[in-house]
Amino acid sequence: GQNIDQPTEMTATEGAIVQINCTYQTSGFNGLFWYQQHAGEAPTFLSYNVLDGLEEKGRFSSFLSRSKGYSYLLLKELQMKDSASYLCAVLDSNYQLIWGAGTKLIIKP
Amino acid sequence: DAGITQSPRHKVTETGTPVTLRCHQTENHRYMYWYRQDPGHGLRLIHYSYGVKDTDKGEVSDGYSVSRSKTEDFLLTLESATSSQTSVYFCAISEVGGSYNEQFFGPGTRLTVL
Hints:
heterodimer; A: about 110 residues; B: about 110 residues
């Protein structure tokens, strides 16, 4: 079966750095997405990785290792507005997005 | 923000009644999707469309049907609602369906089946 694992919840301090991990086992791989979802709102796109390595976009970076079935989202200089759920999703061999259950990130002052 | 609206935003209905949710886009994107989101689960694909009158099933399609008669509208119908279909439903759109299909999501519909 297809499976994507993320921690259910993480807590971090304002101004700090946090890394949210995602491991996946899917039938094929055509890319990995990270989305942010604030409570009661729609998911919004953060990043896309299809090749191994690090993609940096401002305070957010996303890393991919296809051989290990592993990705992480790195958030720097955390702000209170970063409190949200972070969703990892893999595009499988049929170009269907398989979603993880999401990681709820709580930022404390 | 991508122009996607969903209606209704909230609905309470009774078991056994039919329910139709509407997704409307103004982006002229070819692909449209219906997902449900439940606590402890990731987003799960119900049905998707790759063009007018072209639809296909997703992971959790049982009990749901869809129709797309115009590019801008994608309807999701629960023929006979059950309590297990209580969920938040999201519509999404994407310009392409291939390797980089960034999806834009509507605001969601919260459905409660009593």
